[in-house]
Amino acid sequence: MSAPKKLFIKTYGCQMNVYDSERMAEALGTKGYEQTTDADQADMILLNTCHIREKAAEKMYSELGRLKQFKLAKPEMKFAVAGCVAQAEGGEIIERQPMVDLVVGPQSYHRLPKMADAIDRGEKAIDTDFPEEDKFEELKDRPKARRAPSAFLTVQEGCDKFCTFCVVPYTRGAEVSRPVDRILREARELVERGVAEINLLGQNVNAYHGEGPDGDWTLAQLIREMATIEGLERIRFTTSHPRDMEQDLIDAHGDCAKLMPYLHLPVQSGSDKILKAMNRGHTREEYFALIKRIRDVRPDLLLSGDFIVGFPGETEEDFMDTMDLVEQVGFGQAYSFKYSTRPGTPAAERAQVDEDVKSERLQRLQALLGKQQKAAQDAMVGRETTVLFEKQGRDPGQLIGKSENLHAVHAFADKSLIGTVRRVRVIKSLTNSLTGELI
Ligand code: SAH
Ligand code: SF4
Ligand code: F3S
Q: What is the arrangement of strands in the sheet containing 302-309, beginning at the earlier edge strand?
């Protein structure tokens, strides 16, 4: 057996890319690759890219430019580009940066072992198909190594919603749900390997409708079944779309003890005119009503959202509707962005909002969201919660974990508690974390 080859992966974008990077590392593991954190030592450098906002492709090319020095020092080094920029640009990447050996899209990376053979023979390998075969099934035998306590598990991919600003339906393809038995098998394997919390992933995870033993199952059905797995302590899911938030999933938040009280439910804008122009498929009043139904069953649920400011046609009044929605709803966590023109999407063709106006609105929105985030964190002081300890902290004797509401929590605790869920009393709120003590 030859010495293991070293693989360096850099991941951009969403959690699905994080999951995909793990799976790509496993796929290349079958070809003798082991992961390294030193890019200059690598035999292969893989960039797993994101295309969601402008300049993503430019960033990738400049990153490749920076990495070129390593190739000069080590000419046999291979370069691979995966993810959503790979899907969008395909072979053009190699035309522009001939140092790249391999380009693989998010739906075809189970073919990486074959592609790795091809580049070893000195060929270029490009695959951006949306193949018939199920990539997860091709990759089903995950190595049995011990895992970190919290893991991602992709259950649904792609998007049919076509929001007018978004590239995901083009880079990830149509909505596809994985069958129930395969997801449960993967979940059990993760638990056997030390995982205590599973975060179910999908671009529209609550649109999940995978083949079950008796017809298609909803996400709520899948969660309830998963909750029966012994040793699995916590379940989360992300990202949800307000349009697919059905009553059975809301109910699960009320009565499924393993389902954590945290919900990422992006609304993007508080203006009906803009929501319509974005093709989001709901009004602000419908969003308010939905939040009320959710909070009725789970008052302590922490709500998280995504916002876009400066969408084409957004006036000051529309923006104030967003501010007002945020005031009324109250978000414990949020991600906000300036609208970014994506070629090929409908909104790119419309009259654009001035860049300065976008920046100024983003600042005001982030100030408000920041205040709400801080208030939600501060409100935890004096309360009890459970924490899944994930790793050692920077201070000796401290562990770091996540609360039920996904707040980072530090506490003095023995490292044997890593991977376990413990009751903690919150005693202090810091900038981006809480301090707790074991009860
Ligand atoms: N499927 C999820 C979002 C996936 S993309 C949903 O519908 O909620 C993640 C976030 O990126 C989006 O919620 C949006 O806020 C942001 N985003 C997507 N396209 C964007 C664009 N063109 N400009 C700015 N932000 C964008
Ligand atoms: Fe993009 Fe809209 Fe689909 Fe979310 S629902 S991935 S924002 S098109
Ligand atoms: Fe980015 Fe693709 Fe995810 S565009 S946000 S990596 S689905």
A: 262-264, 302-309, 333-338
Domain with CATH 2.40.50.140 in the chain: 384-438
Atom number of ligand 2 nearest to Cα 241: 5
Structure tokens at 263: 């919900």
Give φ, ψ of 40 to 5 degrees. -70, -20
CATH architecture, range 5-127: 3-Layer(aba) Sandwich (3.40)
Q: Give span(s): CATH 3.80.30.20, the chain.
A: 141-378
Pocket of ligand 3 contains residue 401 by CB under 6 Å? no
CATH 3.40.50.410 is the classification of domain 384-438: no
CA of 166 to the centre of ligand 2 (A): 6
Q: Which pLDDT tens digit goes with each residue over 23-51?
A: 999 999 999 999 999 999 999 999 999 99
pLDDT, tens only, 231-269: 999 999 999 999 999 999 999 999 999 999 999 999 999
Pick the atom of ligand 1 nearest to 280's CA. 7
**Is this model's pTM higher than 0.90 or not?**
yes
264 lines ligand 2 (CB under 6 A): no
Tell which one of 50, 159, 280 to mutate to probe ligand 2, the residue whose CB is within 8 A of the most ligand atoms: 159
Q: Which residues pair with 126 in a beta bridge?
A: 103
> Ligand 1 atom closest to Cα of 204?
1
